[in-house]
Design goal:
With 341 residues, the protein is an alpha+beta fold. The chain is built from 12 helices and 18 strands.
Length: 341
């Protein structure tokens, strides 16, 4: 069983202040700030580009910390300019080895920095990571930062991660026109059925049944994530309008449900569930379509359908791609191997 890193195992001397400095001609000194991050700084970076994943949002890290895990909110500077942020989840494996993990980050300011500055920043981050004992940093960039990671001495240890980003900024007719023909036909069939899509109260006890379904699914497939536990913590930090959940009913029977996390002008499909009746009635299609319309009203422009795996979940992958979403491929997981401090 994995356990959170204890505060005593973080090198507080290096955590305060700037860990390693590297002078770059033109850009100034590269430095990392390990503590004292604010949501405003995060929003400055995450709002500078078209999309930032929920896994790198300020609130996601706060939620992990409230859950008893350990997340570091770090900032990267070139001179006095904030050039990027990274949420690093730190967890201890069995024994004394510690894993630090950046999922779909760092997030760089869209106007800066150049490739050489990014390479220098990754080097500074790697050298100054304030963890005692044996540890390794793994980076899964949100994109294909191969040149940056190779230039920082990192090697790819896992193949690419893929997701589907759905643009919902257009009007409903344009979004509908981009649907795959089979996807649209299933949606129309669901709309003509007796299915009803109802919003679920934003009180955690009202959507807890959906989290339990996710727990059951994880047990069946034999792996664990914190998706089922994180939602209430995330909502408590960001506010009730950060979470949207819906249920599908056939008569009095609940046949499906879906839960979404809102982060800025983006949202992420966090949990989905349907039983056999729901699948036969195409409840997933109707749930997602209702969610798209609701999220549009909340100002969401991009919906991250979160993860495509054509080997293990080809049906789910086809469902997500069928929405007309753009498939985005990341370059995989990278590391420079174990370190000791």
């Amino acid at each position: 069983m994995k356990s959170a890193l204890k505060t005593s195992e973080i090198d507080t001397q290096t955590q305060t202040g700037d860990v390693v400095n590297l002078h770059l001609t033109g850009d100034g000194e590269i430095r990392v700030a390990w503590e004292g991050a604010t949501k405003a700084e995060w929003d400055e970076i995450c709002g500078s580009g078209d999309f930032a994943p929920v896994y790198q949002s300020f609130a996601y890290g706060e939620a992990l910390n409230q859950m008893g895990r350990n997340a570091l909110h770090i900032r990267l500077y070139a001179g006095d300019n904030l050039i990027g942020v990274a949420l690093i989840e730190v967890r201890k494996l069995m024994g004394a080895f510690t894993i630090a993990h950046i999922m779909r980050g760092p997030i760089w300011h869209n106007k800066t920095p150049n490739t050489q500055t990014k390479i220098a920043a990754i080097n500074v981050l790697h050298k100054g990571l304030p963890i005692r004992g044996a540890h390794a940093l793994f980076i899964v960039p949100d994109g294909t930062d191969d040149i940056v990671l190779k230039g920082s001495g990192y090697k790819r240890v896992m193949t690419g991660y893929h997701t589907a980003l759905l643009d919902i900024s257009d009007d409903e007719a344009e979004i509908s026109a981009r649907l795959n023909g089979k996807w649209r036909n299933r949606l129309r069939a669901a709309e003509k059925s007796d299915l009803r899509i109802l919003p679920i109260s934003k009180k955690p006890e009202k959507y807890s049944w959906l989290l339990e379904q996710e727990t059951n699914r994880q047990q069946k497939v034999g792996y664990r994530t914190h998706a089922n536990a994180l939602a209430p913590f995330y909502q408590s930090i960001v506010g009730k309008r950060s979470l949207f959940a819906f249920e599908a009913k056939n008569g009095i029977d609940r046949v499906g449900g879906a839960l979404f996390l809102k982060h800025g002008t983006n949202a992420t499909y966090h949990i989905g569930w349907t039983n056999d009746d729901g699948k036969n009635l195409n409840a997933n299609n109707l749930l997602l379509w209702h969610a798209i319309k609701a999220l549009k009203k909340e100002g969401v422009k991009t919906l991250d359908l979160d993860g495509l795996n054509t080997d293990f979940n080809p049906g789910i992958a086809r469902f997500k791609i069928g929405t007309g979403a753009k498939v985005v491929s990341m370059s995989g997981a990278w590391t420079r191997g174990p370190r000791w401090r």
